[in-house]
Amino acid sequence: QLQLAESGGGLVQPGGSLRLSCVGSIYTLDHYTIGWFRQAPGKEREGVACHSVKDGTTAYAASVKGRFAASWGDAPNTVYLQMNSLHAEDTGVYYCAATRDPYLCSRDYARMFKDEYWREYWGQGIQVTVNT
Predict the structure, then answer these.
(1) What is the spatial distance between Cα 84 and Cα 18, in angstroms, rounded to a whole number?
(2) Do 21 and 74 form a contact (C-beta atoms < 8 A)?
(3) Which ranges constitute the DSSP H helices of the chain?
(4) Radius of gyration over alpha carbons of the chain, in Å?
(5) Looking at residue 55, what is its pLDDT?
């Protein structure tokens, strides 16, 4: 059973950067697509990044495109979400999740953040706060 754990969150000033890590409990994540989601206080959870680890395909929500980048980590069971030019609106709890479809981002781009793909594997979430 795959387990995921996020790290790297914290407090950052507007315009600053953070890098989140998502580590899986198995040897490699390349059979999965990793999704990054966030939930701000009082708001619904939203998908921000999709990373099909096997072929490197990435896709992003419009709100973060050009500022966030998903990539392989330093180990085959680790992926990163680099977040730059952070705004106060980026504040929230960030989660990584995994789905068994290794090509989801390109196969179903229009629906890649739909709940039906992300039922099984979630991290515990980590707080990101953008504030002066």
Answers:
(1) 7
(2) no
(3) 104-107
(4) 14
(5) 87
Could you tell me how many residues make up the chain? 132
> Exposed, middle or buried: residue 45 (CB in 10 Å: 0-12, 13-18, 19+)?
middle
pLDDT at 53: 84
Taking only the tens place, the pLDDT of each residue in 49-100 is 999 988 889 999 999 999 999 999 999 999 999 999 999 999 999 999 999 9
Residue 120, amino acid: E
Which residue carries 């950052």 as its tokens?
Answer: 12
* Burial of 89 from C-beta contacts in 10 A (0-12 / 13-18 / 19+): exposed
The amino acid at 112? M
**Contact between residue 56 and residue 76 where contact means Cβ atoms under 8 Å apart:** no
| CA dist., res. 88 & res. 130, Å (int) | 5
Say if residues 37 and 43 touch (Cβ distance below 8 Å): no
